[in-house]
Amino acid sequence: MSTTLPVAGAARVRAAAWSDIRADRGAVAGLVLLNGLASAAGLVGPWLLGRIVDTVRAGSGDVLGTVDRLALGVLVFTVVQLLLGRWALAVGYRFGERTAARVRERFVARTLALPPSVAEHVPAGDLIARGSTDASVVAFTLRRAVPEVLVAVVQALLLIAAVLVLNPLLGLCGLVCLVGVGVALRWYLRRARTAYLTEAASGAQLADVVTSTAKGARTIEALALEGRRAEATDEAVADLRAARLRTLWLRTVLYPSFDISCALPPVGVLLVGGALHANGAVSIGVVVAATVYMRQLVGPLDTLTIWVEQLQAAIASYARIEGLADVPREEPRPAADPVDDRIEVADVRFAYDGGRDVLRGVDLVVRPGERLAVIGTSGAGKSTLARLLAGLERPRTGSVTVGGTPVADLSPDRLREQVVLVTQDHHVFHDTVRDNLRVAKPDATDEELHGALEALGARWIKDLPEGLDTEVGTVVSLDGARAQQLSLARVVLADPHTLILDEATALLDPTTARETEQSLAAVLRGRTVIAIAHRLQTAHDADRVAVLEAGELVELGTHDELVDAGGPYAALWASWHGGHDDQDPRREPGAT
Ligand SMILES: Nc1ncnc2c1ncn2[C@@H]1O[C@H](COP(=O)(O)OP(=O)(O)OP(=O)(O)O)[C@@H](O)[C@H]1O
């Protein structure tokens, strides 16, 4: 898996944005219609103003009465424009909220749909940045910028059209004067996408460096890597600073160019209109109306300038959110229902990311109901084998099957009923105890939930202020043993026939480990158990022992058979057992 998440290309962004718009097309149509009406109402005022000027200049008939009526018209249409504009904005805001919710939901759904083998390897900081910062930028833009930009675009187009209708020559003059705006915008837009994508990626990179430093703090301290991590952080900060300076520079050029360009159209129309009027080509009223229209254009253009930067940042964020759809993943393969509970590993080879094989030609049949201990030195491939048995990885060659079906082909729901990997990583969600447990069985009744907790001796559930409804992780925090019991209760609810234990109790303190082992014993009853053994006592108590060395299965048999065989297991057993008869076997350091 690459160290960066993909970013959607321009075509995909357009397609996704189009489908978001289509999903709420009623609101979009209403938005455009209301904006059009508001802008049309806004056009009447300047036109009436021109009529007032022409009426006063003509000076014939009921000048005062006509001017009063025209002025009343200006007032009425201004109020109508205001009301329609507000209504359009309200429709726009609602559209923005709904669309933002849709984008967030899509992101969450795509994140949750990532297969575990992919999810474990994606850069956490980048993923978090996309779900938080990028989603917020998109949501804010949809709420505020999109409605206002739509209003501004419709207004600007109608204003230009109105000047062209009033007098095509003045209209053309206005358009020519607008060229500066077009040039400034084009210059900016050609550079903005890359600049904002770089800024967002640098932000995510910094988040990644900080997150991984915090996560690996102990290792960093132990290996005295503080200096290197500080350097990596400084580099990420410098990259982000450079990326921000680049976007700042783009804005520094855009804003003044835009402001100067916006001042040109009214000045140009006034000058050309004055010349035309002097030659009797247009009335002074038309010149006034056209100039006011051009002056009014500054409003929508200003809005566009303010939001164009936000839009660019949002497009970059939107591309990053949509990019999640391009994370390489395997298409689900149709999987037949397993015919029985037999687990079979046949001539398996496996390599991480195209590297060297870390498992080489492993053959193993696990009989239903047996306890198999897997031992081997550090790096021998025990955890990798556990991940293959749990369907988290797929073998490069060979097969890992349960009841004849490849484990990795099973859907998460079917897999959970067959094989579950238990590690020391027991996650407690910030949620109620009930929802924490229902992760494993969404339709479990309260009786089943209580039953699962009781089976593990988790009597603390009775002391919680609101029982199953207690929010854990926020209101009430669970200590290590309780958190482990909660996660083991999930296993009881999922009720798989086979459990794979990998370091389930390895790093717990002795008291917690004892409590957890008791809970574990309750979970193991009646199931097939494959234990990555860190204590030789576990191997001694198992039905069979599998010994891995440098990715190969070098021995397989009962404890007694392997001791008699005099191979690597016998040597290991002798080196610990010989001369340590007085020692409590549960305290020996383990096989790894
Ligand atoms: N995610 C990974 N990417 C690349 N290589 C890996 C990854 N995980 C493990 N390895 C490599 O695969 C080999 C087998 O590792 P594995 O963790 O399966 O061994 P292990 O026997 O469980 O060791 P330990 O007892 O130390 O956990 C090792 O050389 C290890 O460096």
TrEMBL record:
Transmembrane segments: 28-50, 70-89, 145-163, 169-189
Gene3D superfamilies the record matches: ABC transporter type 1, transmembrane domain, P-loop containing nucleotide triphosphate hydrolases
Protein's recorded name: ABC transporter related protein
Listed GO CC annotations: plasma membrane
Domain (ABC transmembrane type-1): residue spans on this chain: 29-313
The keyword Cytoplasm appears for this protein: no
Annotated PROSITE patterns: ABC_TM1F, ABC_TRANSPORTER_2
Swiss-Prot/TrEMBL keywords: ATP-binding, Cell inner membrane, Cell membrane, Membrane, Nucleotide-binding, Transmembrane, Transmembrane helix, Transport
Signal peptide: none
Bilayer topology annotation: Multi-pass membrane protein
InterPro entries listed in its UniProt record: AAA+_ATPase, ABC1_TM_dom, ABC1_TM_sf, ABC_transporter-like_ATP-bd, P-loop_NTPase, Type_1_exporter
GO molecular function, one term: ABC-type oligopeptide transporter activity
Source species: Kribbella flavida (strain DSM 17836 / JCM 10339 / NBRC 14399)
